[in-house]
Design brief:
Helix content of chain A: 55-70%
Strand content of chain B: 25-35%
Number of strands of chain A: 23
Strand content of chain A: 15-25%
Largest interface: A-B, 29 and 30 residues
Largest sheet of chain B: 6 strands, mixed
Helix content of chain B: 25-40%
Structural class of chain B: alpha/beta
Shape of chain B: globular
Radius of gyration of chain A: 33 Å
Number of strands of chain B: 10
Order of helices and strands of chain B: EEEHEEHEHHHHEHEHEE
Radius of gyration of chain B: 17 Å
Distance between the termini of chain B: 25 Å
Oligomer: heterodimer
Number of helices of chain A: 29
Distance between the termini of chain A: 37 Å
Shape of chain A: elongated
Chain lengths: 877, 231
């Protein structure tokens, strides 16, 4: 207790009071940490919320089922229900489900169709009816009355109404939003078939009715099978399996139902989570940059505290304060900044999450799964994580300067005018350390991915960043030396003084320069990576999108699984004389080695003439396609090849309807449409494998001289009414791909801007502290006749020199980091090969803006310096 | 050109806005110094000597009263005019030398001329002359932390006189030196006075240092109480 009281007394004078007194420094530091923490909190919250709706929907729809029986290929045969009959005596209960995606006619809004056996399904899901139609004798289709159910189940007579061949049940929330009521009609389009239904029941917003944000339609399974051409097909079978029957159920389903997999309902969430893992981790890592820059800020603040209070520390040590107490006091300062910054950061992050969620949600919808982001929920775990992270890194960054304060002799601290530059030996030692870090970083880039994640790649980035920070002092010394004659000639005395004052305060300015360098390096690296990626995608789109028109059964180009054309559309297309040829494409999702991948079918004979696939192996596209046609083989995307270590002449075992099938791999091509991996095969093989002849995209090549716009209008007019055709021109497709690309990286830019803001805060903080530290010197310059303008000019020149060092160092480091991002992290995370094509203009503009921001950051300290009261400052030492 | 100095009813207060927190450093000071005089200010610590020097040197403004340098009341000058006045008309010598640590001896000495934008050739010539005069030509490229206390003070004197200011203000110039070195510094100040005759105001505790002046003014509790004691 006594020790604690003594420590508190020490902290009061050495830490707490100065923190309160030096408001600007305290505010800037806390703000720096807060911004870093807030970005991490926002990304974490929005990452979680983006998929929460998806997983909650899966849970809500799963109801009481503890297992599901699915086919990795997509659909199960209805006969599997018969195979499950022997499990009934063991207490296993099962219910067939058709889980389909569709669109509502007119509004074109997506809707999930859950078709179940409404009798047996009562064991699995709680349907609470808000109202239900009752039949009037003789007027079965028109005379409907509504019964309010008050939460009770309907009577048998009214319940039977739901089994009529055009009945549909909607959540009451959906009906309210769309102005619908019992008895109204609604047209749904599922798997290319349009069907009109009559609303005969409304569900209260409970249980399954809450899934998919209420955009859900429930109908009898027989109705759905008939309406959508799925006779004898099931999406899955939901099962309630008692604990003692799990093994028996597993063995029976494996033996008796070919191609079926028994798994927990949560498995789908896990797969989707895994599919998004690289995307989310990379986003989180990028957000970490802001905190990394924040660490430099705390380090600098504590270091400045020690330098400014060196005399006080000396006096306290003389009076008997132990090195341990001094150390603990300065670590406490780091902790105070960290805690305050973390708490503020959590509040900022919570607000920021709404913005980032929008951006992340859009990307996930465009590239991965269709889901509506749910509410942002600030969980205690996120709060604890943020506090631990923010406070932890602050404490860690305070350790080194605190150790320094604890180890210096009292007389050295008391002596006035102690030199605060670093020794040449120290600078050289740091430069050697930088060299070692660079070498280690280079070695880390050689290490392959661990568990599918580029762990060594991240380590390489950290090592290179640490190296750049370590070489900052030497860079400042060298550049100041070079700048001195030039500045002297251009700006006379203020120029000379600016050039010599940075090396004199090397320890402090080096940390600020390092922080800014890191932020600039990351900005350059990401600019180069995104710019190169964009250029690669643009070239890829130019090469692959060659048809004149694309027609789709949905208004958007992104995934819309429910919308397909029937095979019969081909005959209609052949009748249109403007069309020379067309290529029909169908993609579907399958589970391969417990990962979601895309399998597609296309007209390979057609593609051999018209397509231009960027091939990895073999170089000849024609050879790969011909081999695939002859051997019933497949072409796979580069990302699939890298993720699963597959090469040409290997074979790939894919789940197909009713089992699995080996396909020889005849080629590997580059595909930037998705990182999950794509397999493409000839349409005939696809139809055979999946018993699915529908089409989701048709690439159309027009005869020479035909105007694409005119052809587009004609196709839409001819087929629009029957097939709900949306035609896109080549230019629209290209623009849309680039729009999705730019939208995906919008958040990346936002995160980088935050890092730069934190770094600029660091510059303001450092310079403001330097002004306070140098107030006697600046006052002297004023006494000797320097005008306010000259003083301000000197500070701004110092700032520009600091900005120049940071920019040059950041640029060099950024180019190296971009190489790591492109060839190590991106390749290991997503399996993409990106051509190195730095966007020189973008980088130059970004650097110029950062430089300007740095110089602007000097305005406030420069004003402070100009306003210094000479007599007070001269007395203060 | 040398200038007379005259302080009329000068008062100076330090501190906050509340009356209780202000400290009166100078109270109704009347002081007249003739052009080219070498006057000594003596008095105990905290009596107001340095404040008086700061006011004469335009480092600070009086709370009330007039400070006439020649015909000009510097209390009424703008910030820019004060800067120009300090740059051209005043030379300062401090107890703790106050050299710019990042500049060499040559650069420190030439500082006022650099500030005035003097051409490089002229700057080099005049700096060279002053360095010869203070006997530190051989130390021209050294930095302040490579010099002894006496040498640092000689550099400070060189810096104070290079632009030939009409007023030279010295605040305890020997306070941080041993007696022998202090003597050398005082000789140097005397020789400056003799060479071009600036008005010199020197604050000191030392009777020995005071003997170098033409006369002494006593400062006690913020008042100049002894009007003239010829030495």
């Amino acid at each position: 207790m006594k020790t604690l009281r003594a420590f508190f007394a020490l902290c009061l004078g050495l830490v707490f009071r100065p923190i309160l007194r030096e408001k600007t420094r305290t505010t800037l530091t806390i703000l720096g940490i807060a911004v870093g923490v807030s970005v991490l909190v926002a990304i974490q919250l929005s990452n979680t919320s983006a998929l929460r709706a998806f997983s909650e929907s899966v849970d809500a729809v799963a109801g009481r089922a503890n297992f599901i029986l699915v086919s990795d290929a997509g659909m199960l045969e209805e006969s599997s229900l018969t195979a499950l009959q022997p499990l009934w005596p063991l207490g296993v209960r099962f219910a067939p489900v058709l889980d389909l995606e569709g669109v509502v006619e007119k509004s074109q809004r997506p809707i999930r169709v859950l078709a179940v056996d409404l009798f047996s399904d009562l064991h699995f899901r709680d349907y609470r009816y808000a109202s239900i139609a009752t039949a009037q004798s003789g007027e079965r289709t028109t005379g409907l009355e509504t019964l309010a159910m008050d939460g009770n189940q309907p009577s048998v007579a009214s319940f039977l109404e739901l089994f009529r061949r055009d009945s549909i049940v909607l959540p009451s929330t959906y009906a309210d939003e769309n102005g619908l009521e019992v008895g109204n009609g609604i047209v749904l389009e599922v798997l290319g078939r349009r069907q009109k239904f009559v609303i005969r029941g409304l569900l209260r917003a409970e249980g399954p009715a809450t899934a998919f944000d209420g955009s859900l339609a429930i109908m009898d399974i027989a109705t759905a099978q008939a309406a959508f051409g799925l006779h004898g097909r099931l999406s899955r079978v939901d099962l309630m399996v008692p604990d003692n029957a799990v093994e028996r159920t597993r063995s029976l389903t494996t033996e008796a139902i070919e191609g079926a997999v028994l798994e927990r309902p949560s498995r789908r969430n896990e797969r989707v989570g895994r599919m998004l893992r690289a995307f989310r981790i990379n986003l989180f890592a990028l957000a970490g940059v802001a905190l990394l820059v924040g660490i430099f800020l705390v380090y600098n603040t504590v270091l400045i505290s020690i330098l400014r209070r060196r005399a006080d520390v000396g006096v306290l040590k003389t009076l008997g304060a132990s090195p341990r107490q001094i150390f603990a006091a300065f670590v406490m300062e780091g902790a105070v900044f960290g805690l305050a910054g973390s708490l503020l950061g959590i509040a900022f992050g919570y607000g920021l999450a709404y913005g980032t969620l929008e951006l992340i949600g859009r990307t996930i919808n465009a590239l991965y799964v269709s889901t509506a982001p749910s509410e942002i929920v600030l969980t205690p775990i996120v709060v604890i994580m943020a506090i631990l992270l923010g406070t932890g890194v602050s404490v860690l960054s305070a350790v080194q300067p605190a150790l320094e304060a604890a180890s210096i002799r009292p007389n050295a601290l008391i002596r006035a005018g102690i030199y605060q530059g670093a020794s040449t030996r120290g600078v050289l030692r740091l430069a050697v350390a930088a060299l070692v870090l660079f070498v280690l970083g280079a070695l880390a880039t050689r290490v392959p991915a661990i568990g599918g994640l580029p762990i060594a790649g991240y380590a390489a980035v950290i090592l290179i960043v640490a190296g750049a920070a370590a070489i900052a002092p030497l860079s400042i010394l060298q550049l100041s030396r070079l700048a001195r004659p030039l500045f002297g000639r251009l700006f006379q005395l203020p120029g000379t003084l600016a050039a010599v004052s940075l090396p004199a305060s090397l320890r402090r300015v080096a940390v600020a320069a390092a922080a800014l360098s890191v932020a600039i390096a990351m900005m350059v690296a990401v600019s180069v990576m995104v710019g190169s990626f964009r250029e690669t995608v643009r070239a890829w789109v130019d090469q692959t999108v060659r048809s004149d028109l694309w027609i789709r059964p949905a208004q958007q180009l992104g995934p819309s699984p429910g919308a397909v054309f029937p095979a019969s559309i081909s005959d209609e297309l052949r009748k249109i004389e403007e069309i020379e040829m067309f290529d029909r494409i169908r993609m579907r999702e399958v589970v391969f080695r417990d990962s979601l991948i895309a399998v597609g079918g296309g007209d390979f004979a057609q593609a051999a003439q018209t397509a231009s696939m960027p091939m990895v192996r073999p170089r000849s596209q024609a050879r790969a396609i011909q081999a695939a046609i002859q051997r019933e083989g497949v072409l796979i995307s580069e990302s699939l090849s890298l993720k699963f270590d597959l090469d040409v002449d290997d074979s790939i075992e894919l789940p197909v309807q009713g089992g699995t099938q080996q396909f020889p791999i005849t080629g590997i091509y580059r595909d930037y449409s998705s990182d999950r991996g794509v397999v493409v095969m000839d349409r005939s093989s696809f139809i055979k494998a999946y018993n699915d002849d529908t089409i989701d995209t048709i690439a159309i090549f027009l005869r020479d001289g035909v105007d694409p716009s005119a052809a587009r209008t004609k196709i839409e007019l001819t087929l629009g009414a029957k097939y709900r055709v949306f035609a896109f021109t080549n230019a629209t497709i290209r623009a849309e791909v680039m729009r999705i690309f730019d939208q995906t990286f919008l958040i990346t830019w936002a995160l980088l801007v935050v890092s730069i803001v934190v770094a600029v805060l660091g510059i303001v903080n450092t310079l403001a502290a330097l002004i306070i530290e140098r107030r006697r010197e600046i006052a002297l310059l004023k006494v000797l006749g320097m005008s306010r303008r000259q003083i301000r000019g000197m500070i701004l020149l110092e700032c520009s020199l600091l900005g120049t060092v940071s920019t040059l160092l950041g640029l060099a480091c950024g180019v190296v980091l971009s190489w790591i991002l492109i060839f190590v992290i991106n390749r290991q995370s997503f399996g993409w090969t990106i051509e190195f094509a730095p966007p020189a203009g973008l980088v130059a503009v970004s650097l110029a803006m950062t430089f300007l921001a740095t110089v602007t950051a000097g305005l406030y300290p420069a004003r402070m310096a100009g306003r210094l009261v000479m007599s007070t400052a001269m007395k203060s030492e | 050109m040398t200038l007379p100095i005259r302080l009329d009813h000068v008062e100076h207060e330090y501190g906050g806005t509340e009356e209780s927190s202000t400290v009166r450093a100078l109270s109704n000071v009347e002081l007249s110094i003739g052009a080219g005089d070498f006057v000594i200010l003596m008095g105990p610590s905290g009596s107001g000597k340095s404040t008086l020097l700061n006011l004469i040197g335009a480092v600070d403004r009086p709370t009330s009263g007039r400070i006439l340098i020649g015909e000009t009341d510097i209390a009424k000058l703008s910030e820019d005019e004060l800067t120009l006045f300090r740059r051209t008309s005043v030379g300062f010598i401090f107890q703790f030398f106050n050299l710019v640590p990042t500049l060499t001896v040559r650069e420190n000495v030439g500082f006022p001329l650099s500030l005035a934008g003097t051409r490089r050739k002229e700057l080099a010539e005049r700096t060279g002359e002053v360095l010869d005069g203070i006997g530190l030509q051989h130390r021209a490229s050294h930095y302040p932390n490579q010099l002894s206390g006496g040498e640092m003070q000689r550099v400070a004197i060189g810096r104070a006189i290079i632009h030939r200011p009409s007023i030279l203000l010295a605040d305890e110039p020997t306070g941080n030196l041993d007696s022998r070195t202090g003597e050398t510094v005082l000789e140097l100040i005397r020789s400056v006075h003799q060479s071009y005759g600036p008005t010199i105001v020197m604050a000191t505790h030392s009777e020995r240092a005071a003997s170098y002046g033409d006369y002494v003014r006593q400062v006690v509790d913020g008042r100049v109480i002894d009007e003239g004691r010829p030495l």
